[in-house]
Fold this sequence. Notes:
- This protein has a domain at 2-65.
- By secondary structure, it is an alpha+beta fold.
- Helices cover 17% and strands 9% of the residues.
- The chain contains three helices and three strands, in the order βββααα.
- The protein starts with a strand and ends in a 56-residue tail after the last helix.
- Residues 20-52 form the SWIM-type domain.
- GO terms for molecular function: zinc ion binding.
Amino acid sequence: MMTSVKELVRPPSGRAVGIFKVDIDKRWCDCGEFQALHYPCSHVIAACSFIHHDYMMYVSSKYTLQCIFDVYKEEFPAIPLQSYWQEYNGTELCHNLAMRRDPKGRPQCTRIHTEMDQREKNTHPNRN
């Protein structure tokens, strides 16, 4: 069943306001979220509300509480003491410094100073 849904408010995702077509039987929406996430987008929820359907029947089983509980029901094995670890004889791996994130805070100055930047102290009248 093809339904058209008109957005009245700009969504927080930055997508433009418009009219979106929804096909609930084929689990398809113009925005693409319904197909990608296997979870009803706002357009599908609005269409389900219009035809008096429960939108929860279109939620994938991977989003159910039982599925989430099943993921965490297995116990993680304990890590043995470091003294029990086997000696590593492979190649040594080093991280790439160029891929490191910039530290938080004020950015470092990368400007090259010249003789114009070097001046004597107390040459500015307002500074001590």
